[in-house]
Design brief:
Elements lengths: L5 E5 L9 E9 L7 E3 L6 E5 L5 E3 L5 E3 L3 E4 L6 E4 L4 E8 L5 H4 L10 E3 L14 H19 L5 H11 L9 H14 L4 H17 L7 H8 L4 H12 L3 H7 L21
Antiparallel strand pairs: 1-2, 2-9, 3-8, 4-7, 4-9, 5-6, 5-8, 7-10
């Protein structure tokens, strides 16, 4: 990290653990004004900016300022962001199916969207420079909503998600049961089971490429479950909007600065 830059992850309390993967804080007093490619990671997030919000590139190519509080739904395509000032934020990375009751509506309504949460977080103020206090505020907010709204999980959906993270084969289902699972995934996760597995497989490429053995891209892809180079290249274009070679070239001088859906310029694979 650059001087003055910090990133910290925080374990959620036990009551939130079924729904929240981690809480994290990030600060960069002088971020480089470069465009960051964001790849899907399978986990929606709730983000509260304490410093300057990022600008997000729209489909028309124009960069527009994001709201200070937002919910980032599941992503199926890359996202481009750039900082415009000192960055500081606190965020909640939900489990893939953990944000349904926070949203209060189908997760598919937020897929590939950043929803403005400014109204819902009105009055929520996180102190600058105090990561522990920032996390504490978000925990209290979530705990209050969890108790009030009686958050729950769909055990069938959760079992499929756990199998996907473990890279285990999907259960064999009848066509009718598979259609029912698709509907349940649309409601609880926001993407179909097959799409979630594709996203998680792509993330595993970076585990192998940036791990202790530091495999090359093709070798890392094979370890992650890709059959061949064209299949890996397809997902680089689909999920990062570039080739593996292009991505590596962009990282020169910006080592380990690819952003996850969590928007932090850190290791691409947060799992």
């Amino acid at each position: 990290m650059d001087e003055g830059e910090r990133y910290q992850e925080h374990e959620p309390p036990a009551a939130l653990r079924p729904f929240v993967r981690t809480l994290w804080t990030y600060a960069a007093p002088a971020p480089e004004p470069t465009v960051q490619r964001i790849a899907p990671d399978g986990c929606p997030e709730l983000i509260l900016d304490i410093g300057s919000p990022y600008e997000e590139q729209g489909d028309d190519g124009v960069f527009r300022l994001q709201p200070r509080a937002l919910f980032a739904g599941q992503m199926t395509r890359p996202l481009a962001l750039r900082p415009v000032g000192p960055v500081e934020l606190v965020a909640v990375r939900f489990e893939p199916d953990g944000a349904r009751d926070w949203l209060g509506h189908a997760a598919s309504d937020a897929t590939d969207r950043r929803l403005d949460m400014t109204g819902r977080l009105a009055g929520v103020a996180a102190p600058a420079g105090d990561p522990a206090a920032q996390v504490g505020i978000m925990v209290r907010l979530l705990e209050d909503r969890r108790r009030r709204d009686s958050w729950s999980l769909d055990p069938v959906v959760r079992a499929e998600i756990e199998a996907a993270f473990a890279d285990q084969p999907a259960s064999v289902r009848s066509p009718a049961d598979q259609r029912a699972l698709q509907r349940r995934f649309g409601d609880r996760v926001g993407v179909p089971p097959r799409m979630l597995r594709s996203i998680l497989r792509f993330r595993r490429v970076f585990d192998h490429a940036q791990g202790p053995e530091a495999l090359g891209w093709l070798e890392a892809g094979l370890e992650a479950g890709y059959f061949d180079q064209p299949q890996l290249a397809r997902d680089f274009r689909r999920f990062l909007g570039c080739t593996a070679t292009g991505w590596a070239r962009d990282q020169v001088g910006l080592a380990r600065r690819i952003a996850s859906q969590s928007y932090k310029p850190g290791p691409l694979s947060p799992h």
